[in-house]
Specification:
Length: 161
Amino acid sequence: MKIEQTKDFELIAKLNKPVHDLHCSLYPKYFRKYNFEEVKELFKQLMKNRDFIFLIVKEKKEALGYAWIEIRHYHENVFNKEYQSIYVHQLSIVPSKKNKGFGTFLMEEIYRFAQQQAIDLVELDYWVDNKIAKEFYKKHNFIKYREFVYKQLNGVSPPPR
């Protein structure tokens, strides 16, 4: 296994499909069907942001997954102290390689990257119905410290739980 940074937005767009399809299946009301050209263009634009880093995990030169991370800068204000974190936007492994250690390998690289940047906090969020993500991050000792809640107005039922 090998991990490298990439600016290959087309590759990231291809590797994004499994995680996007999962989100679509869990929350079809909120997620559009995967469109490679649109996703490719989005990642092309995102890669212009110097705080966004894209990592790919490879085996025998084949890309098997990716992580999209961000160096977040929280500025001091009257409420909060200044700090930084590494925020994991997405982590996705191709379906045929799930449960083979590739996700853990990516997370360990994210931890190393954070330490190299002298950042001691890694943050992320995931959709409540994504049980795979919940168990994966639990295995990595992530702790829930904040909850995001919502209220659906106009009588429309909320996303399934």
